[in-house]
């Protein structure tokens, strides 16, 4: 690599840049006729099949990407992650979310300490607690079983657990395990979210789980205080010990909040917030809802992919292949976005979760050693289950901008419906779209084809589809706890691969800090204006005008508990 140390100066990067011209001469229509190319781009591991053949890439592209991975020291970086090196150097932390799903027999060290026994100590505690709550041995202040759980948390302390909960809600076995129980999430500091989360719940049957790595996040702590006052207003202050528990790395603040440390479930600073769903952050609320045994299967699925990621040669390594191709799309083919399109309603919250994992991890402007990037890192992730997305934003991805797509399909649906007189089952109908969309994007429709169909000339430009739009297709056998775990780990590691190639630190998140500081200044002003009539001062013209307008309506924001 040359003087600046940026990977963009390496021969491998430049070679890939030059290779774009060659790829631009191809069209997926032709690339898809090459059966041996396509066969080489279909990979399988532990029941998951991924077809990369609709990527704008050839075997040569893959070889060049593997060369780039050598320059980026990808293998070394993956190894360092798994052995607990402090690869999150700006926070001086290890990145060991893989240890959260390690079997008891494993040994994974952080600063000389085997963390696997620590992980299992918390898992055992979760099992014991969730069993007691679910069986009605642990009761609320009035002696009633706690059938409903409200998990309060935001960002990584919310999105992962919500994704998994949504994925398991309609799965027959987990749905059975959750019968007569409710799990709600409260994330936004918006009081509307409080109202929605508590709507229809009774204090005496509700258990509140406060989830915050730091236990300082403003939104979570205000929501926690709000719900605590909802509990105590009905049941008295002694009820907190029976109705409120916490998940955090900060036991001191948990105690100060009034929660018995016995009712606190720990995790560690080597678990990033957005990578924490496999810690007590997700495992506690999910075990309360679905039972610990089901959630261990979710951990096992994630661990299966962890092992594959750690050991499989790159040519067959699913997260590595996914990550390299994402870099190819974003940094070389000029596609900054990724659409995550599960053809499965139960995966409705996959895209919002991956959005945080990816964008908070890789939305960086400097390398891990602080050098300004001369290429774009990060990708804009969004998505919606098919077929809903088809009736929303697919117009743009078919005829507007080029947005690489992940199509995710499930072979055996959680729900089976086959109506008499219909030619296919309802799930098959859904999956017809899964298969069709990928080809529609790849092949498009030419003016010649349209003319042959008798389309009038003036409509030909409007009805033409250029095609050549990249996607990948992923098939999972079922959507059960195990496969949900696999899917999660697949995306987590793909995102790590991207960051390792871009040479950034995918595990810090300094970019979220500035807004928090400014909000705190506004909070001080708001209080001074509302309570002492102090004029708005120290803000620019725009913010001053907006704040004055907002504060003109008196008496707002001073209302009572919910
Ligand atoms: O949005 C910033 C962030 O720090 C995320 O990284 C994190 O997931 C979220 O806030 C919540 O943090 P905590 O779990 O400490 O409340």
UniProtKB/TrEMBL annotation:
KW Isomerase (keyword) present: yes
Any one GO molecular function term: monosaccharide binding
Coiled-coil zones: none
Similarity section: Belongs to the GPI family.
The keyword Cell cycle belongs to this UniProt entry's keyword annotation: no
Localization: Cytoplasm
A single BP term in Gene Ontology: glucose 6-phosphate metabolic process
Assigned GO CC terms: cytosol
Known pathway: Carbohydrate degradation; glycolysis; D-glyceraldehyde 3-phosphate and glycerone phosphate from D-glucose: step 2/4
Native source organism of the sequence: Selaginella moellendorffii
Record note on quaternary structure: Homodimer.
Major enzyme class: isomerase
UniProt protein name: Glucose-6-phosphate isomerase
Xref: InterPro entries: G6P_Isomerase, G6P_Isomerase_C, Phosphoglucose_isomerase_CS, SIS_dom_sf, SIS_PGI_1, SIS_PGI_2
Keyword set, alphabetical order: Cytoplasm, Gluconeogenesis, Glycolysis, Isomerase
Enzyme Commission code: 5.3.1.9
Catalytic activity as recorded in UniProt: alpha-D-glucose 6-phosphate = beta-D-fructose 6-phosphate
């Amino acid at each position: 690599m040359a003087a600046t140390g940026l990977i963009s100066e390496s021969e491998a990067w430049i070679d890939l840049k030059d290779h774009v011209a060659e790829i631009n001469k191809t069209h997926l229509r032709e690339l898809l006729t090459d059966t041996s190319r396509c066969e080489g781009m279909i990979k399988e591991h532990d029941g998951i099949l991924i077809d990369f053949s609709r990527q704008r890439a050839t075997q040569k592209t893959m070889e060049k990407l593997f060369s780039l991975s050598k320059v980026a020291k990808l293998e070394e970086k993956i190894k360092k992650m798994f052995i607990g090196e402090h690869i999150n150097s700006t926070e001086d932390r290890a990145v060991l979310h893989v240890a959260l799903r390690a079997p008891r027999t494993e040994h994974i060290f952080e600063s000389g300490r085997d963390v696997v026994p620590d992980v299992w100590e918390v898992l055992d505690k979760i099992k014991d607690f969730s069993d007691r709550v679910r069986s009605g041995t642990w009761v609320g202040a009035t002696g009633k079983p706690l059938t409903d759980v409200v998990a309060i948390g935001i960002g990584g302390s919310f999105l992962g657990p919500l994704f998994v909960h949504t994925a398991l809600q309609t799965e027959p076995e987990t749905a059975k395990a959750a019968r007569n129980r409710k799990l709600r999430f409260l994330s936004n500091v918006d009081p509307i979210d409080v109202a929605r989360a508590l709507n229809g719940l009774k204090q005496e049957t509700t258990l509140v789980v406060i989830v915050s790595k730091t236990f300082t996040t403003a939104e979570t702590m205000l929501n926690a205080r709000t719900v605590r006052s909802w509990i105590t207003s009905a049941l008295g202050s002694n009820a907190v010990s029976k109705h409120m528990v916490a998940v955090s790395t900060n036991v001191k603040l948990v105690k100060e909040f009034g929660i018995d440390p016995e009712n606190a479930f720990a995790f560690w600073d080597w678990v990033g917030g957005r990578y924490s769903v496999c810690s007590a952050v997700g495992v506690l609320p999910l075990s309360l809802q679905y039972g610990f045994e089901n959630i261990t299967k979710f951990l096992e699925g994630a661990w299966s992919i962890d092992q594959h990621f750690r050991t499989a040669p790159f040519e067959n390594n699913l997260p590595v292949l996914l990550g390299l191709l994402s870099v190819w799309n974003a940094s070389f083919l000029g596609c900054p976005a990724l659409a995550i399109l599960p053809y499965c309603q139960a995966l409705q919250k996959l895209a919002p979760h991956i959005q945080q994992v990816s964008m908070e991890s890789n939305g960086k402007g400097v390398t891990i050693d602080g050098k300004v990037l001369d290429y774009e890192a990060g990708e804009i992730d969004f998505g919606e289950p098919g077929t809903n997305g088809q009736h929303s934003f697919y117009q743009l991805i078919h005829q507007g901008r080029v947005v690489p797509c992940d199509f995710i399909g499930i072979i055996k649906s959680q729900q089976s419906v086959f109506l008499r007189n219909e030619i296919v089952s309802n799930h098959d109908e859904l999956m017809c779209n899964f298969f069709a969309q990928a080809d529609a994007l790849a092949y498009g429709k030419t003016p010649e084809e349209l003319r042959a169909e008798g389309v009038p000339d003036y409509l030909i430009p409007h009805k033409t589809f250029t095609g050549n739009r990249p996607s990948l297709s992923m098939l999972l056998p079922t959507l059960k706890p195990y496969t949900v775990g696999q899917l999660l780990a697949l995306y987590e590691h793909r995102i790590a691969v991207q960051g390792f190639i871009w040479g950034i630190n995918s595990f810090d998140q300094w970019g979220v800090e500035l807004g928090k500081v400014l909000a705190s200044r506004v909070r001080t002003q708001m209080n001074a204006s509302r309570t002492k009539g102090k004029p708005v001062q120290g803000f620019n013209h725009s913010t001053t005008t907006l704040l004055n307008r907002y504060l003109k309506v008196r008496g707002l924001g001073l209302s009572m508990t919910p």
